[in-house]
Amino acid sequence: MSKKRILCLFDMDGTLTKARAVIKPEFYDFLLYKVKPLSCIALVGGSDFKKIAEQMGGSDVVHKFDYVFSENGLVYFKYGKEEGRQSIQKFMGENVLQQFINYVLKYLSTITLPVKRGTFVEFRASMLNISPIGRSCSQEERDAFEKYDQEHQIRKQMIDTLRKEFPDIGLTYSIGGQISFDVFPNGWDKTYCLQYLESEGFDEVHFFGDKTAKGGNDYEIFCDKRVIGHSVKNPDDTRRQLEELF
To answer: Subunit notes for this chain (predicted)?
Structure first.
């Protein structure tokens, strides 16, 4: 396979790293020294660039990967240089944005969970990340909430309520990770980054992600006709599938 014609595009959490964890050095070496000589490599994550840099061993990830799309591509780096930036407040307007955030906080004040911590709404350039338990919870509390949510469907019920309350403002809701869900304008899922790759001349774009079922934050890009989708279970499975591909 020619490096000029093939691109491997990776989700981060659950695909290259464990959730919110740092990539294992041996896996990073595998990507850089085994995969990159055969294919261009790109990363797309819903997190802001600071979090991507933390999990990928530093901000030089923009030089190690050919393309880095943070916040689903609303912030876009190509060969180490920032090429594009968009923001949700510019798109929605402050008035609508505040109405939505106020309702979210009001809703969260009415539900009782085993524990609640802090940072319930995290504002990112491309989206709002909403966490019923709060993003400042410990890893142990994070694991416990994930199990609780599987049983009680806290996130799903909240999304259903928000859809009914705000039917006409053009928002998509996507559950990802253990404790939160993302809210963003329609079309601002991970497929957003593909517009930057269409003119790059790749014969094949292979996407690897772990949340590829409907409702997961890799679902839309996994199903997109512009990519060949690979559903993975964890970073070890990503490596196994790459070894099979190449």
So the answer is: Homodimer.
- 2: pLDDT strictly greater than 60: no
70 assigned binding-site residue = no
88-185, which class in CATH?
alpha beta
Could you tell me which residues are beta bridge partners of residue 88?
Answer: none
Average of per-residue pLDDT across 116-122: 97
CATH 3.30.1240.20 in the chain: give the residue spans: 88-185
184 marked ligand binding residue: no
Is 180 annotated as belonging to a binding site? yes
The CATH 3.40.50.1000 domain(s) of the chain lie at: 6-86+188-245
Task: Give me the active site residues, please.
Answer: 11, 13
Residue 4: predicted pLDDT? 60
In this structure, how many other beta carbons lie within 10 angstroms of the beta carbon of residue 7?
A: 22
* pTM of the complete model: 0.75
Q: At the topology level of CATH, where does 6-86+188-245 sit? A: Rossmann fold (3.40.50)
pLDDT at 223: 97
